[in-house]
Write a structure and sequence with these properties.
alpha/beta; 10-stranded mixed beta sheet; 15 helices; 10 strands; about 15% strand; globular
Length: about 375
Amino acid sequence: MILTGGGARAAYQAGVLHAISRILQDAGRPAAYSPFDIICGTSAGALNATALACRADNFAGGVRGLLAVWENVVTHAVYRADSLAVLRSGARWLSLLSFGWLLRKWHAAPPRSLLDNTPLAGLLHRALDLPRLDANLESGRLHALAITASSYSSGHHLTFYQSAARVEPWVRHQRMALPTQIGVEHLLASSAIPFVFPAVPLYLAGHREFCGDGSMRQAAPIAPAIHLGATRVLVVGAGRMGEPASLEPAQAGYPSLAQVAGHALSSIFLDSLAADVERLQRVNHTLARIPLEVRATMPLRQVDLLTIAPSEPLDDIAARHTASLPAPVRTLLGALGALETRGAALASYLLFEASYTRELIRLGEHDTLARRADVLEFFAP
């Protein structure tokens, strides 16, 4: 299973997984049965992936735990939303755009991000049982967990993985895999949305590198699962894939900063996944036309793929819930234009409020139950 990034949008994944659990139980699978032996996650999807990997011995219980977090999430559990914190980070960050030369002159330390996500570390420590992850790997209930991040220091896209059996690390152009003991620091790095949350220092081969969101420079989101041995892959996205171009006329006004930022984040979180799905489908189609005896000599293999992604634009859903954000955050995002309909894409990644996440969970359940036949075929023995 591959869980992609998207900040608060990752609540949709909890709905998808809840529906899968229900479908499999209706088909006679035990509630504790986990259908995934390789779990890969990026950004907020890395948090969901690790939570499920820690409960690989009880899939239904792990899904219930995810639902409990996402159905009751509040902004201040993920990033500081009080007036003082917003002034220290967000307001200073915006001021830097206009008065950065003063900071240089006075040798003042510039803010590192738009928001301070210190509370997220506490949430992860409370929600995750990492020793249980080690036990599931040792017992064979889980084959591997992979988490991705991006290094600002070296420019490499990094895949951190922990596996039951030895898996040789792989290296590709600007991409490398590192076997390691996965910890909270890797999850914080993987989910550090660029500009929004601060980079996280990680020690790699004895030296420190500052790392950010794993969706950046992720040219092949499906590749880690395949390198780890997967032959069937479920991809749960956090945005619509292959949606038709809008027939509405383009906005006449100049785009706000939030509109540009939302467009950039959507490019980071969504575009590479759609391209990689298309690439995998082309490879499968090509291999299907090659005789089996010839295919056996090739390094490529066919990979069955099931993709589940939102059937509705999450930006539009977010626009209906921006009023639920704490007042200091609304003021900050309002200054960027994120409270306007056309700037709601930025808000959709930062709206860690239950009214929004519960609607995403319901959408995830609806989209998955509508594809019950595809799910049963995919998970057939």
